Amino acid sequence: IMTRLPRVYQTMMELQMLDITTDPIEIAPTAHYSMGGVWVRPEDHQTDVDGLYAIGEASSGLHGANRLGGNSLIELLVYGRIVGQAAMEHAAGLDAQRRSATAVAEARAEIDDLLAAEGRENVRALQRAIRNLMTEYAGVVRSEEGLRAGLADLDMIEGRMEDIGIHPDIAGFQDLAHAFDLKASALAARATLEAALERRETRGCHNRSDFPDTDPTLQVNLVWSPKDGVTREAIPEISPEIAELMREVDTAGKLVE
Q1: Fewest beta carbons within 10 Å, which of 64, 66, 77, 98?
Q2: How far is it, in rounded angstroms, from Cα 137 to Cα 149?
Q3: What Rg do the C-alpha atoms of the chain give, in angstroms?
Q4: Are 224 and 232 in contact (CB under 8 A)?
Q5: Which residues are 230's β-sheet partners?
Q6: Which residue segments constitute the domains of the chain, with CATH numbers given?
Q7: Taking 80 as the threshold, does the pLDDT of residue 28 lie above it?
Q8: What is the pTM assigned to this prediction?
């Protein structure tokens, strides 16, 4: 423990909780990363919003069907440099940095509407409800029945979100922050459930108990949007320079993350 987990040991001792070299520590699973994220152009990681770029596990450009340990550094350093250069070139091509008056007005109206919300639903309770349904229906092993049940639960939660109450108090605007988190969580949950339902196969760490085999026709990216739902996007051809560096890795008897 002192060799492999020194920081965990130090943190627990500083918090005066327990000595993990002598006492057992409770372990539970949690969401650590995402292998799907914001859609970006492969050449410069720009999103479909002009001037907005995404890197890291928000775009998950290197993970594919399963997360590869250590990729986070490549995601940040390699794509950080590419995006920095692309953003600089984009900014240099503008005659001025203009704000969208329409976008600002819409954002202010959204905040004003939330602050005026006096509904009966508690924001944090709805956050827990989304977490529970995703744990129950979109966990390690998924099925058609479970994913459809999760979507039905999400429909109900989204209906309840129309009746939330935001109550700023002396402690600040925490309810408002949680309300935005709730809206984002509902969006991510729907994208995950609908994409998992569309991918009727088992690939990487996406495990469908009702479709245990890999389907060659589904070697595509699934892109979800509120307007179009799930669409299939062909994976670009691998360049010869990269193909020369690729090799099969034997995973027999090895721990695959």
Answers
A1: 98
A2: 7
A3: 22
A4: no
A5: 224
A6: 6-95 (no CATH), 121-214 (1.20.58.100)
A7: no
A8: 0.82
Measured in residues, the chain has a length of: 257
Longest dimension (CA), the chain: 64
Which of helix, strand or coil describes residue 59? Answer: coil
* Paired tokens of 185: 């969580």
Q: What letters, b where the CB count within 10 A reaches 16 and e where it falls short, cover 164-186?
A: bebeeeeeeeebbebbeebbebb
Q: How far apart are CA 27 and CA 24, in angstroms?
A: 9
Closest among 84, 174, 183, 193 to 134, alpha carbons compared: 193
Cβ distance 197 to 147 under 8 Å? yes
For 234-257, what is each residue's pLDDT tens digit? 988 888 998 999 888 776 765 554
Which DSSP symbol is given to 172? B
Whether pLDDT at 184 is above 90 = yes
Q: What is the mean pLDDT of the chain?
A: 89
pLDDT tens digits along 141-162: 999 999 999 999 999 999 999 9
Q: Token digits for 35?
A: 């292998």
* Per-residue pLDDT band at 30 (split at 50, 70, 90): confident
Paired tokens of 69: 């340990």
